[in-house]
Each structure stands twice: as structure tokens, then as C-alpha cells.
Amino acid sequence: MPASKKVHVTTTINGEDTDFLCEPRHSLLEVLRDNLGLTGSKEGCNNGNCGACTVMLNGRPVDSCLVLGAEVEGAEIETVEGIACSSNLHPVQECFLEGAALQCGICTPGFLVASKALLDKDPHASEETIRFDLSGNLCRCTGYDKIVRAVQAAGQKMATKV
Amino acid sequence: MTTTQYRVIGSRPVRHDGADKVTGKAIYTADTKLPGMLAGFVLRSPHAHAKIISIDTSEAEATPGVHAILTNADFPNVENKIADLGEGSVNLSYLSANCMAQQKVLYRGHAVAAVAATDVHIAEEAARKIKVEYEVLDSVTWVLDAMEENAPLLHEDIVTDSMGEKADKPSNIPVHLHFEKGDAAAAFEEADGIVEREFKTATVHQGYIEPHAVVADYNEDGRLRIWTATQGSFTCRQQTAEILQIPLGNVLVTPCEIGGGFGGKITVYLEPTAALLSKKAGRPVRIAMTRADVFEASGPTPGSFMRVKIGAKNDGTLIAGEAWLAYDAGAYPGGMIGPGCMCVFSCYDIDHAIVDGYDVLLNKPKTSAYRAPGATQVAFATEQLVDEIAEKLGMCALEIREKNAVKEGSRRVDGPVYPPIGLVECLDALKQSEHWNTPLDGPHQGRGIAAGFWFGCGLKSSAACTVNSDGTINLMEGSTDIGGSRTSIAMQLAEVLGLEAEDINPQVGDTDTAGYTDVTGGSRVTFATGMAAYEAGRDLQQQMRTLAADLWDCSADDITIGEDGVFSGNGKAVGFKALAVELFAAGEHLVGRATVAPECPTNGFGAQIADVEVDPETGKVTVLRYTTIQDAGKAIHPSYVEGQLQGGTVQGIGWALNEEYFYRDDNTMANASFLDYRMPTMLDVPMIDTIIVETGNPEHPYGVRGVGETPIVPPPAALANAIYNATDTRMTELPMSPPKLWKAMQSEQASE
């Protein structure tokens, strides 16, 4: 079977105009990691059950393994690589570090993207809201306790900064 | 309890690899890309048990983009040689056959061929064109069935080794272990109360979020370079070299950042395959498992059947214990039955005990270590019986544990006598805790407690520290860092030298660079590699003392080194950094080094409290509150110790309430995805409170005990006890999922 014809896609990734060629079967996660070298987004399951590949697509967190590269024409995408501003960490990154909210770190990029998305809407999110909103992100190391606390701390930091 | 005041130890610095891991810069194996790299795909068996009649790769070979195809014919013949992997040993022929099936496939997911191509999709398409002809055989996945005389036989050449005596015909039981202490039969005669039950636990998986992955580059000069997700780069090097039958020195293993392991990333699965594909293709090859591959073809931890009995006197003294344990080994021998036998009564001072354990082959993937391997299953049994006999004798669950807890001088059923340990202190902390002293306040609620133990091993570690011209240190060590160990090791070096954690640049070296270091496992890294870093610091100080004596015109014996790392002598008092700068300026460049191999286990004990609410309509268990208490000896970085306690506990909660391999009628796994193999999400658990007890380990300069594994041991038992207290229903089968608990509650009600 001959390989399918590649598709040309124009998009914005972390604020930069980006275009790429991909096969129709390539997921956005594959495009980010293999075509564009943005390996911060991780593959844990490749079927939308672990959240390690979470990115922002037009302002909403999505599992990039469930989006096709060819679908993102004209879209705005933000990945974990775009969270820090120049060399300044975002409060959610700072709080994950200060609160020891990561161990192996493989789920961390997905958690950071999803947490920032939640806190941008609701910096005062309750523990219940955080647990509900981030339940699509699996972590096997931490037992979640320190992640929840880090997200709460980051929310406070973000609310004070505004 | 330790009372020494430290400057760095006990503080909570940001980990050295932290910024890399919150910005997406940290490089894991699947992120590694080499020029010309191909993608590999492994074709796996759809059957639980089958003979391989033939493999035809011709159509796959003709696929454009395919560069190499591999079958069992490409693997060298490996003898029945036993290789020591540090934490356990393995027969190399089985290890090799587990990487690529030989005459038979022994479980669904068993590798039968592999393809390297320009793209993983092409590799997969080509692999699907490989025609494997199978003769399907009868299979077995339940441990008691596999022990039957007429059970489908996995290996024709395996006979039972019963404490050194070999049986005369083959069976699925490679090993029978037997331990005895005192006279259990006589003691049961004298017991005032006896409880006995049978327990079952399901196969569960470590569930690390990063699937196994490897990049191999077989160079034209015979040098094999491997980048991989491993818990032990040196054991990976050894296994790979032995399977490929190439000199160990030809292999370089670079451990990438690793996305979780929990014991499941010690055995090699992909490395030899990637290496041979690379050799055939003349290009580097990367292979990553899919999530389904991880479930079906890596190493889950044993399902089990256990019959356990304990006897006590009226005053609550436990006097007799008996255990009959059968654990899944999986498709090849070498399961977790040994530690299961040793742990079944490890928390209690029982004078008379008898333990029989069976390692059982069946058509599941070869089991692997999972955090305190073998201990969680037996704790599920024993810790429930301890509660049950307490109730029978009118005692409280805590009181009976306090009365019988092991302490210094207690002898375990397998022989060892405990040095100073901290179970009594953990139970005391439990008794004093706010949680224990706060009553429950609702219907269908219950509280349970349980104790747990894991050995914690020493093994071999190395460390080298190079002094920079500004007095900072580059620390080279060989323990792959799964949960912040770079920092806990660097903190011990900083403490001894009088530096800050940030003055140390710790680096996990590859097998060409770091000194020999055993696996990241056995709760050993902060203990043993930390000890190596401490000793390397001491080595550096001795060198500096000699050099300072020349500089200061006195004898080395006149120079003392304070607890704060300050060198004093001949009227001078200079800190480490200032002296290092002075020595460098004087032309001295320094490297401190150490190798250690502590032999004594670190003996990690813990205790936990679980509060649950059970929905009587559905059998769903909600964990309301949870406290994990553990003797850490001395917590180097308390946040990461808490993290180990919390993470292990939540894995244990998953094991207790949800996780299991479901098997179809044809003995293939039905739920090989994160959707259907249900690990706890954030919404399924509460905050996990922790209490760190510090009894100080006399075998370590700062008193460290291993902490990583013990926290997973008590949860299923603590939750089962809590469920009993909420519902009057004893759960003897894991997981205690809603359908099982609902059914058990129904039959409990029917029998009332």
C-alpha cells in the first residue's frame, strides 16, 4: 500500500507561526514530537486515557493523541514548552517544584498544561474542582496529594499577581 | 529517635532536575532521536499458549521502507546460565526467550518477530504481513489450576525444586519453599483462639505512565550503544550482553530520564531486539511499547492464592502461624514467592510458624517486581486475620498489634534476627495521631488499620565527586533517578562537606562513566548511593586535610574537620569552599571517590489508617481519610519521603479497590488499556496524610532507612479491615471492586 499523500498544515504553536507536512493518519502528538521536536508532550497510552499529552487547542485542553495533525489547520496550540515566559517559570511550574509535586516527571507536562488551563479560568478552584477537572490526567508516582496542593498554591500566586 | 541537628538534611530544596521536568526539556527515551534512526515494531502472539510452526517474513520484507526483520532465528543460543541482577537472579535462556519466543509462545503478547522501518506505521504494517503459523495449545491462568497434575505444561524441562530436592517429572511448579520456626502444630494445640481463611489476589501492573522504550545503535566496530528507560543501567548492560553473547565491555547503556518503574523496569524486554535490528539495518533503531504491550508483555506482579492461619492465647499473644502460598510466576520461573514467604509473618513475634510457598508457571507474562514484591499479597491475608483474632479475643486491633509487634531481637520465620527497628514506634505514632483519635461520624463508615514491612537492601553503589575551581562539586553517580534521588544523594554530600544542596551538581552517569551501581530498587538508592556520596565526601576531606597540612605548615593529624565541614588547624579555620579554591589556585585538582556495598537490610516498617464509606446499594468504597505512617530512619528530603508514602499508598489503594487483569475464556487479557485497567485518578482518592517516624538506622551515617516500598504493603489489608468494620463483611479477594463487595455483602446478609 503506498503511503498516503502528506497534508500541508499552517498553525500557531506557542505563539509562533508554524507549518508542517504530515500524513493524514498522524496524530497531533506525533506531529509535535516527531516532526517539530516538541517532545515535552508525552505519550503514555495513545488513546486518551492518561493525559500525558495534554495541550491547549484554541484555548481548550485536549489529549493531543486524539487529535489528527491534519485537523489543526489555522488553530492556536500551546504546549508545555510555551508555559514559561522567557526564562521565568510560570507560577504553576514554580509551585510544582516548591511543592515536590512530581517524582518521575513523565505526567508533569500534561498536568501543568491542564492545571494552568483550570487556573486561568478559576484561580480559586476548590480541591473538589481541581480533582474533578484534572481527573483525566494520571499520575502513578505521587498519589496526587502534592499535585492538588501545588495547583492550589499556584492559584493563590496567580490571583495575587493579577 | 535521632536528635542530631543538620543543616541540609531534613530541608526541602528544589530538586536539581526540577526545571527540566516542568518545562518539557527533560529527555526520556522516547524523546531521543539519532541521525538516520529507524522505528521498530514488535509482532506479538495473539494466543495464550501455542507452538510456533513456521514464520514467513517474505511479504513483510518486500514492503517499501522496511530495513530489517528479526525472528527467533536471529537470537543466539543462550545456555541455562544464572545471571545475578543485583536484586534477584535470572536464568538467561528464559530471559532471552521472554524477549523473543523460541519454539512456543507462552502468553498473549509474547514477542515473535520485529521489524525496523523508516516510520513506525510502516514497521507495523509490515509486521502485520508476517505470517506466523501456530498450533494453539491448552492454556491456564489460575494458579491453583496450573498446579494440577494434568494442567497444560508450560516447560517440558522444569521439575519442582523443593528445598534442594528435585522431583522426578516435569510440572508447572519450579520452586517449593519451606520455612519453619519452633513447632507450629503443637502451638496450635495450645492456642485459645485460631482463625484461618483462604485469600485470592488478582494480577496487577505497576502502571508506570511511560511505556518501555529503547534506542539502540549497533556500531560497525562492534560497539553497542543503548539509551533506555531502565531502573539499572548496569544490569541492563549485563542482561543485553549475555543475551546477545557479546563482551560486556562492548555495551554502553545510557539511562535516560525514566517515567516510573516501581520494579517493572529492571528486566530487559526490548533492548536485545532493538540491538539486533540495528545490527541488521546498520542504523539506529528506536522501539517503544504501546500501552497494550506494556500490560500484556512486560512484567506485572503475581496474582496469588493463600491459606493462612494464626493462633493466639487468651491474653492476645500470637503463638502460632501457618501459611500455604501459591504465587503466579508467569511464563518463566522466578516469581515473588520468596519474599512472600518471608513477609507473611514479618511484623509479628510469633514463636511457632510454618510457611510453604510455591512459584507457579502459567500463561501470563513473566511476573516482575512491583514495590515490595510479594509482600502486599500476604499482608492482605495476615493483617485481616490479626484483626479477626483480636475481635474473637475481645481486643482492639491496635492493642493486639502493639502486644505482638516485632522489635530488636525478634526472629523472622526465615531466620534473620532483627536489629533495632521501628514498628513499635510507628504503632505508637498511630495511637497518638489526630486521625486515630477522631471518631467516624456517619453510617456505612468503617476504619481499618494494618502494618507493613519491607526489607530494604544495600547492594553496590559508587560515587565520585570532582571539585570545581570555585569550590562547587560535580557529583557522578549511577542510580537512575525515578523520584528525586539525585537531590537526596547530593544533600548527603552537601551535609558532610558543609555545602548547600545547590553547590552540588549531581549527574546520573552512563555505564562508561559512573562506577558500578546496582538497580534503583529495593528502597536502596537514598540509603546506599547516599552512603557512597557521603563516603566520597569523606575521601575528599582526607585528601584536602593532607594538602592543607602542606599549605598550613603543620601535620595532617593537627587538622580537624568539624561537623560543619570546617577545617581547623595551626590557628586557621577554613570552610570547604574557601579551602577548595585555595587548593585549586595552588595547583591541586581533586576527585573524591567511594564504593560501598552495605549488607544489612534497612528494615522499613510502617502502619496505616484507612477510613471508608461503603455504598450499600452498589458496593462502591469511598476512601474518606487516610494516614500513612512510616519509619524512615532519617528523612533526608522530607517532601520526597512523604511523596513515596503517598504514592505507594495510592498504588495500594488501586490494588485494593479496582485494579486487576481480566482474562477471557481463551486466557487472553481483556482489559489492556488505561480505560479498562482502572488505576486511581485524582478524583478517586483523598489527601494522604503522612507521619514520618525517625528511629535512625545505625548502619547509615545519617540513619537512613529505605522508604519506597513499604507504603504499598498495608493498603489492601487496611481497607479490607475498614470495609469489614463498615459492613460486617470480610473480603478475602482482591480487588474489592463494587461487584465483588456487593455480592459479598448480599451473601453476608443472606447468611444472617
Total number of beta strands of chain A: 5
Q: What distance lies between the first and last C-alpha atoms of chain A, to the nearest angstrom?
A: 56 Å
Radius of gyration of chain B: 27 Å
Assign the structural class of chain B, choosing from mainly alpha, mainly beta, alpha/beta, alpha+beta, or little secondary structure.
Answer: alpha+beta
What name does CATH use for the topology of the largest domain in chain A? Ubiquitin-like (UB roll)
- Give the strand content of chain A: 15-25%
Percentage of residues in DSSP E strands of chain B: 25-35%
CATH topology of the largest domain in chain B: Aldehyde Oxidoreductase, domain 4
Specify the helix fraction band of chain A: 25-40%
Query: Main β-sheet of chain B: number of strands, strand sense, barrel status?
Result: 7 strands, mixed
- In CATH, the architecture of the largest domain in chain B is 2-Layer Sandwich
- Under CATH, the homologous superfamily of the largest domain in chain A reads Beta-grasp domain
Strand segment count of chain B: 30
Question: For the record, what is the CATH homologous superfamily label of the largest domain in chain B?
Answer: Aldehyde oxidase/xanthine dehydrogenase, molybdopterin binding domain
Task: Describe the protein.
The complex is a heterodimer of chains A (162) and B (752). Chain A has 162 residues and is of the alpha+beta class. Chain A has 2 domains: 76 residues, Ubiquitin-like (UB roll) (Roll); 71 residues, DNA polymerase, domain 1. Chain A has 5 helices and 5 strands. A 5-stranded mixed beta sheet of chain A has the order 2-1-5-3-4, sandwiched between helices. In chain A, helix 2 packs across helix 5 and helix 3 crosses helix 5. Chain A is globular and about 45 Å long. Chain B is of the alpha+beta class. Chain B has 3 domains: 147 residues, Aldehyde oxidase/xanthine dehydrogenase, molybdopterin binding domain (Aldehyde Oxidoreductase, domain 4, 2-Layer Sandwich), CATH 3.30.365; 189 residues, Aldehyde Oxidoreductase, domain 3 (Alpha-Beta Complex); 297 residues, 2-Layer Sandwich (Aldehyde Oxidoreductase, domain 4), CATH 3.30.365. Chain B has a 7-stranded mixed beta sheet with strand order 3-7-1-16-13-14-15. Chain B has a 7-stranded mixed beta sheet with strand order 10-9-11-19-18-17-12, with helices on both faces. In chain B, strands 20-28-29-30 form a 4-stranded mixed beta sheet, with helices on both faces. In chain B, a hairpin with a 2-residue loop joins strand 9 and strand 10. In chain B, helix 10 runs parallel beside helix 11 and helix 15 crosses helix 16. The longest helix of chain B has 28 residues. The radius of gyration of chain B is 27 Å and the shape is globular. Chains A and B meet through helix 2, helix 3, helix 4 and helix 5 of A and helix 1, helix 4 and helix 17 of B.
